[in-house]
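Subject: design request, 197 residues
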C-alpha cells in the first residue's frame, strides 16, 4: 500500500477494518485457507496478559505457586522456554483473547499494509464507548514525514515482542509447534528475519 500524497509525522492514516469474529471462528476460517493465501486476521489481544513471563517474575509475583509449577514442568504438564538468556514460565494470569478482526472480504485499505522491521507507521489501539474492553479500534499513524508514492509499513510485532529469530529457532518452532514462523522480507538493516513465532 502506497500513499498518493505526502504525509506528515504524526498524521492519522486510517483504521484497520473487517469482520469481528470469535477466536474459534478465526481458527475455522484459517484451517480452510491455504498456507499460500494472504492472511488478514488481526487478533484483539492488546490488553491481554502475556502468555509467558520470566521465571524471576513468576517467582516474585506468584511465590505460593512456584513449587507446584516446578513439579508440573518435571511431569511434562507445564512448559518452559528459554529466550534471551532467561527462563520463561506460563503466566497464571494469562487469558486468551476473545476476538479477531478478519479483513479478508470486508476491510479498509490498511489491510494491505506490509510489515517492516523499520516501519514508517505505527498501530495504536483506540478504545471508547465500548462496554466490552476487548473491542477497540486499530488506528494507524505516521512515524515520520512520508513522501507521496512511498510504501506504508508497520511492525506486525508489539514493541515488547521484537526478538530476532534465527533459522535454527524457526526450525525448532516448526518441530515443536507444527508451523514455520513467517519469513520477513522487509530487507532493512534491522531485519529480525522472522515473525509470528
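Subject: RE: design request

Done. Sequence follows.
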Amino acid at each position: 500500500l502506497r500513499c498518493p500524497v505526502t504525509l506528515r509525522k504524526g498524521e492519522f492514516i486510517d483504521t484497520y477494518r473487517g469482520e469481528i469474529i470469535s477466536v474459534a471462528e478465526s481458527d475455522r476460517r484459517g484451517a480452510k485457507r491455504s498456507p499460500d493465501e494472504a492472511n488478514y486476521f488481526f487478533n484483539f489481544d492488546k490488553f491481554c496478559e502475556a502468555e509467558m513471563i520470566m521465571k524471576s517474575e513468576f517467582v516474585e509475583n506468584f511465590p505460593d505457586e512456584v513449587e507446584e509449577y516446578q513439579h508440573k514442568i518435571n511431569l511434562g504438564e507445564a512448559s518452559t522456554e528459554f529466550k534471551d538468556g532467561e527462563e520463561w514460565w506460563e503466566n497464571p494470569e494469562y487469558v486468551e483473547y476473545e476476538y479477531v478482526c478478519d479483513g479478508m472480504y470486508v476491510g479498509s485499505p490498511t489491510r494491505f499494509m506490509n510489515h517492516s522491521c523499520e516501519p514508517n507507521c505505527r498501530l495504536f489501539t483506540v478504545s471508547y464507548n465500548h462496554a466490552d474492553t476487548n473491542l477497540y479500534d486499530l488506528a494507524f499513524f505516521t512515524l515520520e514525514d512520508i513522501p507521496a508514492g512511498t510504501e506504508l509499513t508497520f511492525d506486525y510485532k508489539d514493541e515488547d515482542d521484537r526478538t530476532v529469530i534465527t533459522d535454527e529457532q524457526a526450525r525448532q518452532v516448526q518441530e515443536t509447534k507444527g508451523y514455520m514462523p513467517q519469513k520477513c522480507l522487509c530487507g532493512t538493516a534491522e531485519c529480525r528475519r522472522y515473525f509470528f513465532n
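The CA atoms of residues 89 and 115 lie 29 Å apart.
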